Protein backbone atom coordinates (compact mmCIF):
# COMPACT_ATOMS: atom_id res chain seq x y z
CA UNK A 1 0.00 0.00 0.00
CA UNK A 2 2.59 2.55 1.16
CA UNK A 3 4.86 3.15 -1.80
CA UNK A 4 2.92 1.08 -4.35
CA UNK A 5 -0.64 2.47 -4.36
CA UNK A 6 -0.17 5.62 -2.29
CA UNK A 7 2.83 7.84 -1.72
CA UNK A 8 2.35 7.56 2.02
CA UNK A 9 5.97 6.63 2.78
CA UNK A 10 6.84 10.31 2.47
CA UNK A 11 4.03 11.09 4.92
CA UNK A 12 5.50 8.68 7.46
CA UNK A 13 8.93 10.28 7.12
CA UNK A 14 7.41 13.73 7.66
CA UNK A 15 5.64 12.53 10.80
CA UNK A 16 8.81 10.94 12.16
CA UNK A 17 10.81 14.09 11.41
CA UNK A 18 8.20 16.25 13.14
CA UNK A 19 8.43 14.15 16.31
CA UNK A 20 12.24 14.08 16.19
CA UNK A 21 12.30 17.88 15.82
CA UNK A 22 10.48 18.15 19.15
CA UNK A 23 13.48 16.53 20.80
CA UNK A 24 16.07 18.44 18.73
CA UNK A 25 17.13 15.29 16.91
CA UNK A 26 17.89 15.04 13.20
CA UNK A 27 16.25 12.28 11.19
CA UNK A 28 19.00 11.35 8.68
CA UNK A 29 18.38 9.94 5.21
CA UNK A 30 20.37 6.78 5.87
CA UNK A 31 18.00 5.95 8.72
CA UNK A 32 14.99 6.66 6.49
CA UNK A 33 16.26 4.11 3.96
CA UNK A 34 16.94 1.58 6.72
CA UNK A 35 13.31 1.81 7.87
CA UNK A 36 11.80 1.42 4.42
CA UNK A 37 8.92 -1.06 4.46
CA UNK A 38 9.19 -1.92 8.17
CA UNK A 39 6.24 -2.20 10.56
CA UNK A 40 5.27 0.78 12.71
CA UNK A 41 6.54 -0.94 15.84
CA UNK A 42 9.90 -1.73 14.24
CA UNK A 43 10.18 1.85 12.97
CA UNK A 44 9.45 3.38 16.37
CA UNK A 45 11.80 1.02 18.20
CA UNK A 46 14.64 1.70 15.76
CA UNK A 47 14.20 5.49 15.70
CA UNK A 48 14.13 5.75 19.50
CA UNK A 49 17.19 3.52 19.82
CA UNK A 50 19.27 4.97 16.98
CA UNK A 51 18.59 8.62 17.82
CA UNK A 52 18.60 8.06 21.59
CA UNK A 53 15.27 9.82 22.04
CA UNK A 54 14.07 10.52 25.61
CA UNK A 55 10.80 8.61 25.05
CA UNK A 56 9.79 4.97 24.86
CA UNK A 57 8.98 3.31 21.51
CA UNK A 58 5.35 3.04 22.66
CA UNK A 59 5.17 6.79 23.32
CA UNK A 60 6.78 7.52 19.96
CA UNK A 61 4.21 5.28 18.26
CA UNK A 62 1.38 7.00 20.14
CA UNK A 63 2.54 10.38 18.85
CA UNK A 64 2.91 9.02 15.33
CA UNK A 65 -0.60 7.54 15.38
CA UNK A 66 -1.95 10.89 16.54
CA UNK A 67 -0.32 12.66 13.60
CA UNK A 68 -1.46 9.92 11.22
CA UNK A 69 -5.11 10.77 11.87
CA UNK A 70 -4.52 14.13 10.17
CA UNK A 71 -1.80 13.27 7.66
CA UNK A 72 -2.44 9.84 6.12
CA UNK A 73 -5.85 10.56 4.50
CA UNK A 74 -4.07 13.12 2.32
CA UNK A 75 -1.52 10.70 0.86
CA UNK A 76 -1.39 11.16 -2.94
CA UNK A 77 -1.83 8.32 -5.42
CA UNK A 78 1.28 7.00 -7.13
CA UNK A 79 1.56 7.13 -10.91
CA UNK A 80 -0.29 4.32 -12.63
CA UNK A 81 -1.88 2.87 -9.48
CA UNK A 82 -5.50 3.77 -10.21
CA UNK A 83 -5.12 2.77 -13.87
CA UNK A 84 -3.77 -0.67 -12.97
CA UNK A 85 -6.24 -1.40 -10.19
CA UNK A 86 -9.21 -0.34 -12.32
CA UNK A 87 -7.95 -2.35 -15.29
CA UNK A 88 -7.55 -5.56 -13.29
CA UNK A 89 -10.88 -5.08 -11.53
CA UNK A 90 -12.66 -4.50 -14.85
CA UNK A 91 -11.22 -7.81 -16.10
CA UNK A 92 -12.40 -9.58 -12.92
CA UNK A 93 -8.87 -10.23 -11.65
CA UNK A 94 -9.18 -10.50 -7.87
CA UNK A 95 -6.79 -8.36 -5.85
CA UNK A 96 -5.87 -8.18 -2.18
CA UNK A 97 -4.12 -5.51 -0.18
CA UNK A 98 -1.35 -7.04 1.96
CA UNK A 99 0.53 -4.48 4.00
CA UNK A 100 2.92 -4.00 6.90
CA UNK A 101 0.76 -1.05 7.91
CA UNK A 102 -1.69 -1.37 10.79
CA UNK A 103 -5.42 -1.88 10.35
CA UNK A 104 -5.90 1.67 11.65
CA UNK A 105 -3.66 3.09 8.90
CA UNK A 106 -5.48 1.06 6.24
CA UNK A 107 -8.83 2.27 7.53
CA UNK A 108 -7.70 5.92 7.50
CA UNK A 109 -6.63 5.74 3.89
CA UNK A 110 -9.57 3.60 2.78
CA UNK A 111 -11.98 6.13 4.27
CA UNK A 112 -10.33 8.87 2.23
CA UNK A 113 -10.53 6.82 -1.01
CA UNK A 114 -13.46 4.40 -0.62
CA UNK A 115 -13.93 3.78 -4.35
CA UNK A 116 -10.28 2.89 -4.94
CA UNK A 117 -9.94 0.67 -1.86
CA UNK A 118 -13.25 -0.96 -2.74
CA UNK A 119 -11.53 -2.53 -5.75
CA UNK A 120 -9.70 -4.94 -3.44
CA UNK A 121 -11.39 -8.27 -2.71
CA UNK A 122 -9.95 -8.16 0.82
CA UNK A 123 -7.30 -6.43 2.90
CA UNK A 124 -4.71 -7.95 5.23
CA UNK A 125 -2.70 -5.77 7.61
CA UNK A 126 0.17 -6.60 9.94
CA UNK A 127 -2.26 -6.38 12.89
CA UNK A 128 -4.60 -9.02 11.42
CA UNK A 129 -5.18 -11.79 14.01
CA UNK A 130 -4.00 -14.44 11.53
CA UNK A 131 -0.72 -12.63 10.83
CA UNK A 132 1.85 -13.58 13.46
CA UNK A 133 4.88 -11.98 11.80
CA UNK A 134 5.21 -8.95 9.56
CA UNK A 135 7.36 -8.65 6.46
CA UNK A 136 10.04 -9.85 5.66
CA UNK A 137 8.32 -13.02 6.87
CA UNK A 138 5.78 -14.43 4.36
CA UNK A 139 2.76 -14.54 6.71
CA UNK A 140 0.91 -11.52 5.28
CA UNK A 141 1.05 -12.80 1.72
CA UNK A 142 0.14 -16.36 2.61
CA UNK A 143 -2.88 -15.18 4.60
CA UNK A 144 -3.91 -12.86 1.76
CA UNK A 145 -3.72 -15.70 -0.79
CA UNK A 146 -5.72 -18.04 1.44
CA UNK A 147 -8.67 -15.63 1.47
CA UNK A 148 -9.27 -15.68 -2.27
CA UNK A 149 -12.25 -17.91 -3.17
CA UNK A 150 -10.20 -20.18 -5.46
CA UNK A 151 -7.29 -20.55 -2.97
CA UNK A 152 -4.52 -19.96 -5.55
CA UNK A 153 -1.11 -21.54 -5.13
CA UNK A 154 1.65 -19.06 -4.21
CA UNK A 155 3.29 -19.38 -7.64
CA UNK A 156 -0.01 -18.22 -9.18
CA UNK A 157 0.07 -14.95 -7.22
CA UNK A 158 1.69 -11.72 -8.38
CA UNK A 159 2.87 -9.20 -5.80
CA UNK A 160 3.68 -5.51 -6.24
CA UNK A 161 6.25 -4.19 -3.78
CA UNK A 162 8.41 -1.13 -3.22
CA UNK A 163 10.63 -2.30 -0.35
CA UNK A 164 13.33 -4.92 0.02
CA UNK A 165 11.60 -6.45 3.07
CA UNK A 166 8.38 -6.75 1.07
CA UNK A 167 10.13 -8.43 -1.85
CA UNK A 168 11.78 -10.89 0.53
CA UNK A 169 8.41 -11.67 2.13
CA UNK A 170 6.81 -12.38 -1.25
CA UNK A 171 9.72 -14.53 -2.39
CA UNK A 172 9.63 -16.48 0.88
CA UNK A 173 5.94 -17.07 0.17
CA UNK A 174 6.87 -18.48 -3.26
CA UNK A 175 5.29 -15.65 -5.25
CA UNK A 176 6.41 -13.55 -8.21
CA UNK A 177 7.21 -9.92 -7.40
CA UNK A 178 7.13 -6.73 -9.42
CA UNK A 179 9.19 -4.11 -7.60
CA UNK A 180 8.77 -0.34 -7.87
CA UNK A 181 11.69 0.71 -5.66
CA UNK A 182 12.38 4.09 -4.15
CA UNK A 183 15.14 5.75 -6.15
CA UNK A 184 17.27 5.95 -3.00
CA UNK A 185 17.43 2.19 -2.55
CA UNK A 186 20.69 0.46 -3.36
CA UNK A 187 20.48 -1.62 -6.53
CA UNK A 188 21.45 -4.76 -4.59
CA UNK A 189 18.15 -4.47 -2.71
CA UNK A 190 16.19 -4.99 -5.92
CA UNK A 191 17.91 -8.13 -7.21
CA UNK A 192 15.43 -10.64 -5.77
CA UNK A 193 12.45 -9.14 -7.59
CA UNK A 194 11.05 -10.92 -10.64
CA UNK A 195 10.75 -7.59 -12.43
CA UNK A 196 11.87 -4.05 -11.52
CA UNK A 197 10.13 -0.97 -12.96
CA UNK A 198 10.31 2.74 -12.17
CA UNK A 199 6.54 3.34 -11.97
CA UNK A 200 3.37 1.31 -12.45
CA UNK A 201 2.92 3.12 -15.76
CA UNK A 202 5.69 0.85 -17.09
CA UNK A 203 3.96 -2.37 -16.04
CA UNK A 204 2.85 -4.64 -18.87
CA UNK A 205 0.17 -7.06 -17.58
CA UNK A 206 0.66 -9.44 -20.51
CA UNK A 207 4.14 -10.31 -19.21
CA UNK A 208 2.37 -12.28 -16.48
CA UNK A 209 -0.52 -13.65 -18.51
CA UNK A 210 -2.91 -10.84 -17.55
CA UNK A 211 -5.12 -8.87 -19.97
CA UNK A 212 -3.05 -6.12 -21.64
CA UNK A 213 -3.89 -2.44 -21.42
CA UNK A 214 -5.74 -1.31 -24.51
CA UNK A 215 -3.64 1.85 -24.55
CA UNK A 216 -0.42 0.00 -23.73
CA UNK A 217 2.68 -0.73 -25.82
CA UNK A 218 3.24 -3.80 -27.99
CA UNK A 219 2.93 -7.07 -26.00
CA UNK A 220 6.18 -8.68 -24.93
CA UNK A 221 7.11 -12.22 -24.09
CA UNK A 222 5.15 -13.59 -21.15
CA UNK A 223 7.02 -14.27 -17.91
CA UNK A 224 6.09 -17.85 -17.02
CA UNK A 225 8.46 -18.68 -14.19
CA UNK A 226 9.68 -17.03 -11.06
CA UNK A 227 13.14 -15.68 -11.75
CA UNK A 228 15.85 -17.77 -10.16
CA UNK A 229 17.88 -15.89 -7.58
TrEMBL record:
<dbReference type="InterPro" id="IPR006439">
    <property type="entry name" value="HAD-SF_hydro_IA"/>
</dbReference>
<dbReference type="GO" id="GO:0016791">
    <property type="term" value="F:phosphatase activity"/>
</dbReference>
<dbReference type="InterPro" id="IPR023214">
    <property type="entry name" value="HAD_sf"/>
</dbReference>
<protein>
    <recommendedName>
        <fullName>Pseudouridine-5'-phosphatase</fullName>
    </recommendedName>
</protein>
<dbReference type="InterPro" id="IPR041492">
    <property type="entry name" value="HAD_2"/>
</dbReference>
<dbReference type="InterPro" id="IPR036412">
    <property type="entry name" value="HAD-like_sf"/>
</dbReference>
<dbReference type="Pfam" id="PF13419">
    <property type="entry name" value="HAD_2"/>
</dbReference>
<dbReference type="InterPro" id="IPR023198">
    <property type="entry name" value="PGP-like_dom2"/>
</dbReference>
Amino acid sequence: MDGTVLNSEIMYHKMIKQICDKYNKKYPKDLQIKLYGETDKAICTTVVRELKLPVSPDEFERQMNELAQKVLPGAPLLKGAERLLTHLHDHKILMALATNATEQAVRLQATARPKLFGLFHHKVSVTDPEVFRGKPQPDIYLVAASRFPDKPKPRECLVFEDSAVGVLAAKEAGMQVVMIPDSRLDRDQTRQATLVIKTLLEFKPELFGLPPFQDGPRPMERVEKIKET
